[in-house]
Amino acid sequence: MDAATITLTPSAARRVAFIAGKQGKAPMLRLSVEGGGCSGFQYRFGLAESIEGDDAVSETDGVKLVVDSVSLDLVSGCVVDFVESMGGSMFKVENPQATAGCGCGSSFAI
Questions:
Q1: In whole angstroms, how far apart are CA 65 and each of 37, 88, 99, 107?
Q2: Given the DSSP bridges, would you call strands 6-8 and 78-85 parallel, antiparallel or unpaired?
Q3: Which of 6, 65, 93, 102 places its Cα 20 to 30 Å from the Cα of 58?
Q4: Phi then psi dihedrals of residue 50, to 5 deg
Q5: Radius of gyration over every alpha carbon of the chain, rounded to an integer in angstroms
Q6: Whole-prediction pTM
Q7: In angstroms, rounded to a whole number, what is the distance separating the alpha carbons of residues 8 and 62?
Q8: Cα atoms in the Cβ-side hemisphere of radius 13 Å centred on 67
């Protein structure tokens, strides 16, 4: 799979490395898409245990972003960032394919 279609920002890479280090796991963030949420699809994040044969993988500062082939169709071209604000901190997906989103930023429509 073409890893150039997904990007992890340096800020997100630092956060994944921090979380993975605390849990004693490899610094790999898995992004997947599930049906549901207030806009039709929702993003799911978790530390990846392994990389599957059909996963797309990109790497930033030694941290891998892993996306399965089904989810990749929905997030191709996306940038995953980690933002901190007065409202809290979270991973944020900037998805050029999304035609609508919700206020919480965790669901989208295409």
A1: 22, 22, 23, 19
A2: parallel
A3: 102
A4: -155, 170
A5: 13
A6: 0.83
A7: 11
A8: 30
Q: What is the pLDDT of residues 32-51, one digit of tens each?
A: 998 876 667 888 999 999 99
Rounded Cα gap, residues 41 and 37, in angstroms = 6
pLDDT of residue 4 exceeding 60, the answer is no
* The pair of three-digit structure tokens given for residue 32, joined into one six-digit string: 């997947």
Domain over 3-109 is classified CATH 2.60.300.12: yes
**Two structure tokens written together for 107:** 């669901």
3-class DSSP string for 35-104: ECCCCCEEEEEEECCCCCCCCEEEEECCEEEEECHHHHHHHCCEEEEEEEECCEEEEEEECCCCCEECCC
58, two tokens: 């990109």
Tokens 């997030």 sit at which residue?
75
Pairing between β-strand 107-109 and β-strand 100-101 as defined by DSSP bridges:
antiparallel
Q: Where are the domains of the chain?
A: 3-109
